[in-house]
Amino acid sequence: MASVPVNPEPAPVAIRRRGRRAPGLRAIGEGGIKWFTFLCALISVITTFSIVGVLVVQAAPFFRHVSVGEFFSGTEWRPEASPGQFGIWPLLAGTLVITVGAGLVAIPLGLLSAIYLSEYAHPRVRSILKPALELLAGIPTVVYGFLALTLITPALKHLLPSLGTFNALSGAIVVGIMILPLVSSLCEDALTAVPKGLREAAYGLGATKMEVTLKIAVPAALSGIMASFILALSRALGETMAVTLASGAGNGHLTFNPAESIQTMTAYIVNVTKGDAAQGTIRYNSIFAVGITLFVMTLLMNLLAQKLVHKFRTAYS
Amino acid sequence: MKPNRRILIGLASIAVIAAASAIFIGCGDKNPGAGGTETSGPAPSGGPKTAAGKISIDGSTTVYPIAQAFAEDFHKKNDGVVIDVGKSGTGSGMTKFERGEIDIAAASRPIEQKEADACKAANVEFIEIPIAADGVCVLVNSANTFADKVTIDELKKAFSKGSTVMTWADIHAGWPAEPIKFYGPTSNHGTYDYFTETVCGKKGNLRDDAVLNQEYTALITAIAGDKNALGYVGYAYYQEKKDQAKALSIDAGKGAVAPTIDTIKDNSYAPLSRPLFLYVNKKSLDRQEVKDFLKFALGEGKPLITEADYVLLPDEAYEIAQKLVDAGTTGSKFMNPQPGKSTLDIMKG
Amino acid sequence: MSSAPVIAPRATAHMKVEQAKHRAKRKRLDAAFKGLCFAAAGVGVLLLLMLLYKIFSEGAGRVSFDFLKGALSRRAGKTGIWPAIVGSLYIMFLTAIIALPLGISAAIYLEEFTRRKNRFTRFIQVNIANLAGVPSIVYGLLGLALFNRWLHLGASVWAGALTMSLLILPMVIIVTQEALKAVPNSYREGSLALGSTPWQAIRLQVLPNASSGILTGMILSISRAVGETAPLIAVGAVAYVTSLPTPSNPKYTVLPILIFDWAGEARPGFDKAAAGAIVVLIVSLLFFNSIAIFLRARARKRG
Prior knowledge:
The complex is a heterotrimer.
Chain A: H1 24-65, H2 68-73, E1 77-78, E2 85-86, H3 89-120, H4 123-137, H5 141-159, H6 168-192, H7 196-204, H8 209-220, H9 222-238, H10 241-247, H11 265-274, H12 282-315
Helix pairs in contact in A: 1-12, 3-6, 3-9, 4-6, 5-6, 5-10, 6-9, 6-10, 7-8, 9-12, 11-12
Chain B: H1 2-30, E1 53-59, H2 64-77, E2 81-85, H3 90-98, E3 104-107, H4 113-121, E4 126-141, E5 149-151, H5 152-159, H6 168-171, E6 181-185, H7 190-199, E7 211-213, H8 216-224, E8 229-234, H9 235-240, E9 245-247, E10 249-251, E11 256-257, H10 261-265, E12 273-281, H11 288-298, H12 303-307, H13 315-327, H14 343-348
Parallel strand pairs in B: 1-2, 1-3, 5-10, 6-7, 6-8
Antiparallel strand pairs in B: 3-12, 4-8, 4-9, 4-12, 10-11
Chain C: H1 4-59, H2 65-69, H3 82-113, H4 119-132, H5 136-150, H6 157-181, H7 185-193, H8 198-227, H9 230-234, E1 240-241, H10 255-263, H11 270-302
Helix pairs in contact in C: 1-11, 3-6, 3-8, 3-10, 4-6, 5-6, 6-8, 7-8, 8-11, 10-11
């Protein structure tokens, strides 16, 4: 044990060197490898700190110009105006309309199809549908943006002739379709993880399949299901390309009307970086302030989802 | 043995994919042009061929169709020259130009004093080349049947900051009292600067509730899809959707004039006719490829301007510009506004 | 109490009828619910099939050898996508070279070298899970400030690849960890018992047995990098380049950006070109992903 390499923390337990005659060179190699892998793991931590650091440092000049209170309470987002108005609520409202709309599309459809897959579908059907869903989840988001413009918006305009080419509705629907595979795949995982014994006990008492599903399986998997909803909504919240293409630029006015053209936080960032706002201007720094808001919101949602998953796992493992 | 074989297969397949892609890229490197363009052999058509080099262009979205066409056709003849064209907007392009990041800045308005100062501070000297004429078109949706012409005063009333105009009736008595939706490009665009300065009296003096787009394509698509739209955009972008959008005739006191090739050319579509510019870093002119590119743009490339739906300046203007390039004459003649004077007159003066 | 026997038969009869009714109602509800679930799954599948159909019906006709190998053009009918394909391949390989070794090493550290979780590894673990949920555009902001401006990489393929590497790193780590977790502990213990060092046990026993899982994760992560658009827009990929990226001129464009640009294009014909580019992108991604899913299914069956 004398030659155990310097470890960044207590010696590993599962893999511990048993050999007594370790040549020095090999020990150094072993230690080097462990150190190398440790540094690699550290990169993820560095990344997090860089994200936070970059956002805060770059947003600082913005907040010298616009007070934090003004930023979070203002209801006009007009970086172009002179003097610019930087109240984030119009962007938050745009993001909210997209997220809620996408949730309204994806959550019922996703949950019900997950129930179908886990409770009703023939194993063979499931063995085809499940991977198919995962494949679809891999379609790039810009493709959904294209579909919003060429398929969904024209269809909506057919129903509502007064609708503009860029509107929140089309963006919300397409993002909903986009996160649908995610919702149903994760919900199905949660439902499948519910022990068979619970269901069988209910069947034994004469319950129908619907009763077993709604009163036993779904409640038992509830924290897992909720986690999948939150993860999917957080995806919708951070979604960029589809909404940028589908929903336009908005006019910086606070609106929750899905028929209007809106701008989400993500779309604002993309639009500014596309114009490559010069470094040092308030528009350039404003994207980092918006970035912080976006980062914190998704972080909170992800932490909540993780907590729920943890709760779910400890209940059934 | 089995696990080892599996990892071998895995590594081998990755290696095969990597190798295949490397070959793929490799053969592309030799042949970067349009399908089947050969690197060896004579250039497809006359003129000496520039061996190699690179040119960076960025700036005006309005000028982008022209710059892209120049780049594409110049590259076809000189496939050793690498050209990239951005469209981040005149203001953004100028910032990059000041930093010396690009060779040519495309601009839909003359350089500003503070930009020229920044160039001076960074030791960037520039040559100013008017490349084409454009008319800023004031557009409504083609479903709009009542509006055909508008006066500059009415536009000023409608678009200026703090405007109380909310419906069409507020602009012009007799038009319906339906709410208007205002559209325009974002403030990093030269068209924004030009329009607000010319119509609203001061740069940036625009009403707060207009929908501002970074992309002109999105802007024109939005106007084409909104029956209560009122917006402005360069002539070429109007041409892209002229079946779904309608350009209003502009009355600046001498009767209403519609934007057409002719009225833009003779400057009677006033005051919204304007020259478009290329600003060239003088240092870049030391490089043969940049010289050749400008020669192409001011000579045989001129038809591309018409093709891109912009208006050619008089031939003399291009000759003067070529002389500026040859002599390396720097400075701007357009920085201070000279209303009423034609582009050619300003160049001569 | 004395009246109870009189009422009871009536009550039970009544109850039986009620029960039968109730049961029938429950059965009907059950059937309706099954139908609802089936319909939901059907609607989902139909929607997605419709989207795919739309893309292929518009774009498949546009795909040809000239389209694949052609240069970018302002003319929708003549344009090719070769520079974008090459740009995407560059991003793919540079990202793979940077992110995969780092990610796999990090996973080895977390799964193999520190089997007993301490506060630090738990922190790293939570951190990685959170990074995986950070919106891609935020990575774009990071790359913009860090690589473009601070390291002066500008709008180069390097800045793009570095940004993408950070983006997929959490995903690579998580999937590799899953693969390593699936290797039974007895393999490690057996190897160690025979006198191997920990690294020998990892290299000779654990990694080979986790290989198909790791490979799956690698493919899925890389295809994520190929499909992402937003971060690359933020780090300044340009829309139009005449040539392919080279070491001396590392400006580039990628397929998703081209699609984004063309989808927003107002001129006629570019929608078809965009659809054609989407077909190329989707077919290659679906191909990669189905290999990955197939590999995983096989590994699961075996395990």
